[in-house]
């Protein structure tokens, strides 16, 4: 694992930033057992309360099953796997946003997911959303004021007129996505996690956001990237974790893992 | 894997984490640390509550005017039904009864909407909880704060109603402030309790409207408890009068309405109002904090 660790310090002083130890994540879904979702089914679920989950019709989805790995400072790690293999769930668990069923994740500082979508409100102006999103990510008012111009310029929202003072619901989907990315990328992070779907906006904006991600990587200690685009994994990552059905199938240098993965997916 | 031997080989994950000072991700901070983090997020809490408040009416043509128009219409409906049609005033003059009724409706609505927003504070914002890091108590507190700001708009209507029915501003109107503070504390505590309960059992959002309606009718929003329960065993009136919603309503009426004197208040009313506020605020906060690391599980 040492030879591909090009950006990191030499092996003697490799400092772990994220340790996952036999991590299990389980989702519980109410009322999905019979698929009928009828009132009687719901009633019997209540009456059976106190017995185990399965009897109550609460379905468990075991999304991550016993994943262990150690990430070091300076690494850029790609997460690959087919849809529903547990990549995004694993990211959320590392960020401490999803409680672990079993096992533990240890981290250095507070890992953050790149994304503020959930905090933004479509009925507010872009201007207020920049402030709200920044505060939601834990920036101070001063930090936001300093970076406000930068965020707006980066998003390019105002290139076609004064759109930043209009409610976000009036934006085209591309414009909204660009503003969201610009807000999310405005903060520096210790451990940064990027979930796919970065390919938003037009070609020009994509280039700009790729550059910004490279910058963020330099500032961040460790970067995790989820993507279905093998090329972008190859471009940015030096180590790859391959998840399949919630299990860690392979962990190693990008080229080795991607070769196996491409064989597996039949590309 | 041809990693050269490292002094860290053979260390268990826990020991390795300890050696480099890594902390368990998503662990619940101590109570003091939690309060400190929450204080650090005060700007977010305030901005979020204001944003929610603005977003509420942003699609309407009249826009923010609805902040005042909604409570005004509410007061009108209650006046029409209870004041004119049912005549529920029972021995109160019209000058007292109308402000009495409107105060009751507004003050109770403040608690009611805080509870309802509290139930959905976590379960209705799972996207936010699963995407970003912040002390989760920010959400219920922010929602109560939104209701407080909403109430301040309602207070404008209330002042107009009071003046319209002959209760002019006087010194006792200053008592409104401590009442609001105490009720806000009480509401926030209750919202946090409901937020934790609602995070575990989202069904509460369906159930709570009925509970709240029972509570409303039992708290004397549109009638005076002592007059209505005359002849019934005394303890029933006592229980109803000492319930927090009735206490805050009565105090607000006492502060605001000329003809509503202290003879309408139960004994030790300020002590009870303070006790409810402190007890529920602190209890609710600790109760909410105890499940901090579990919010966000689907």
Features:
heterodimer; A: 267 residues; 6-stranded mixed β-sheet; 8 helices; globular; B: mainly alpha; 68% helix; 1% strand
Overall residue-averaged pLDDT value of chain B: 88
| Coarse shape of chain B | elongated
The CATH architecture category of the domain at 11-113 and 224-265 in chain A equals: 3-Layer(aba) Sandwich
Describe the biggest sheet of chain A? Answer: 6 strands, mixed
How many beta strands in the DSSP annotation of chain B? 1
What series of H and E elements makes up the topology of chain B? HEHHHHHHHHHHHH
Shape call of chain A: globular
- The SS-based structural class of chain B is mainly alpha
User: What's the total helix number of chain A?
Assistant: 8
Largest interface: A-B, 56 and 44 residues
Folded structure, characterized:
The complex is a heterodimer of chains A (267) and B (298). With 267 residues, chain A is of the alpha/beta class. Chain A has a domain of 145 residues: 3-Layer(aba) Sandwich (Rossmann fold). Chain A has a six-stranded mixed beta sheet, with helices on both faces. In chain A, strand 6, helix 6 and strand 7 form a beta-alpha-beta unit. Chain A is globular and about 55 Å long. By secondary structure, chain B is mostly helical. Chain B has one domain. Chain B starts with 12 loop residues before the first helix and ends in a 9-residue tail after the last helix. The interface between A and B is large, with 56 and 44 residues.
Q: Would you kindly provide a brief summary of this structure?
A:
Chain A is an alpha/beta fold and 267 residues long. Chain A has 8 helices and 9 strands.
Task: Give the topology, please.
The complex is a heterodimer of chains A (267) and B (298).
Chain A: E1 16-29, H1 39-47, E2 59-72, E3 76-80, H2 87-94, E4 102-107, E5 112-113, H3 126-136, H4 141-155, H5 173-184, E6 191-194, H6 203-219, E7 222-226, H7 230-236, E8 239-244, E9 247-253, H8 254-265
Parallel strand pairs in A: 3-7, 3-8, 5-6, 6-7
Antiparallel strand pairs in A: 1-2, 1-4, 8-9
Helix pairs in contact in A: 3-4, 3-5, 4-5
Chain B: H1 13-19, E1 23-24, H2 31-40, H3 42-56, H4 66-85, H5 94-123, H6 126-131, H7 138-164, H8 176-200, H9 204-218, H10 225-228, H11 234-242, H12 244-256, H13 269-289
């Amino acid at each position: 694992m040492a030879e591909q660790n090009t950006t990191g310090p030499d092996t003697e002083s490799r400092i772990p930033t994220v340790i996952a130890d036999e991590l299990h994540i389980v989702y519980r879904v109410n009322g999905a057992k019979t698929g009928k979702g009828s009132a009687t089914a719901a009633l019997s679920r209540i009456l059976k309360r106190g017995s185990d989950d399965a009897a109550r019709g609460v379905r468990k989805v075991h999304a991550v099953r016993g994943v262990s790995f150690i990430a070091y400072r300076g690494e850029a790690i790609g997460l690959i796997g087919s849809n529903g293999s547990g990549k995004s769930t694993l990211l959320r668990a590392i960020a401490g946003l999803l409680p672990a069923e079993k096992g533990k994740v240890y981290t250095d500082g507070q890992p953050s997911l790149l994304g503020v979508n959930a905090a933004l409100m479509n009925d507010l102006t872009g201007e207020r959303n920049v402030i709200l999103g920044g505060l939601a990510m834990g920036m101070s008012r001063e930090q936001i004021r300093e970076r406000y111009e930068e965020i707006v310029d980066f998003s390019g929202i105002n290139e076609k007129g004064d759109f930043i003072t209009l409610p976000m619901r009036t934006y085209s989907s591309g414009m909204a996505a660009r503003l969201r990315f610009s807000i999310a990328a405005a903060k520096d992070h210790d451990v940064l996690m990027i979930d796919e779907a970065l390919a938003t906006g037009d070609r020009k904006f994509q280039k700009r956001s790729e550059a910004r991600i490279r910058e963020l990587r330099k500032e961040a200690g460790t970067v995790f990237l989820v993507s279905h685009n093998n090329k972008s994994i190859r471009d940015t990552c030096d180590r790859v974790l391959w998840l399949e059905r919630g299990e860690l199938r392979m962990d190693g240098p990008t080229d080795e893992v991607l070769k196996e993965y491409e064989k597996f997916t039949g590309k | 894997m041809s990693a050269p031997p490292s002094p860290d080989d053979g260390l268990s994950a826990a020991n390795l984490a300890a050696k480099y000072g890594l902390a368990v991700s998503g662990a619940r901070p101590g109570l003091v640390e939690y309060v400190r983090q929450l204080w650090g997020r005060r700007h977010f809490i305030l901005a979020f509550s204001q944003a929610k408040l603005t977003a509420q009416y942003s699609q309407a043509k009249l826009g923010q005017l609805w902040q005042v128009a909604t409570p005004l219409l509410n007061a009108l409906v209650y006046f029409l039904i209870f004041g004119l049609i049912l005549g529920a005033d029972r021995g109160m003059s019209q000058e007292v009864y109308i402000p009495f009724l409107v105060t009751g409706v507004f003050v109770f609505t403040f608690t009611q909407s805080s509870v309802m927003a509290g139930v959905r504070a976590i379960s209705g914002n799972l996207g936010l909880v699963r995407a970003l890091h912040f002390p989760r108590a920010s959400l219920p507190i922010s929602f109560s704060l939104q209701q407080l700001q909403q109430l301040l708009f309602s207070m404008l209507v209330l002042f107009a109603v009071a003046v319209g029915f002959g209760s002019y501003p006087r010194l006792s109107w200053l008592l409104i402030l401590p009442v609001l503070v105490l009720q806000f504390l009480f509401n926030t505590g209750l919202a946090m309790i409901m937020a934790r309960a609602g995070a575990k059992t989202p069904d509460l959002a369906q159930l709570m409207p009925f509970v709240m309606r029972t509570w409303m009718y039992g708290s004397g929003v549109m009638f005076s408890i002592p007059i209505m329960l005359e002849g019934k065993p005394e303890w029933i009136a006592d229980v109803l009068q000492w319930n927090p919603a009735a206490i805050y309503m009565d105090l607000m009426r006492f502060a605001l309405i000329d003809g509503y004197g202290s003879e309408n208040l139960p004994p030790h009313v300020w002590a009870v109002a303070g006790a409810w506020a402190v007890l529920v605020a602190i209890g609710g906060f600790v109760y909410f904090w105890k499940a901090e690391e579990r919010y966000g599980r689907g």
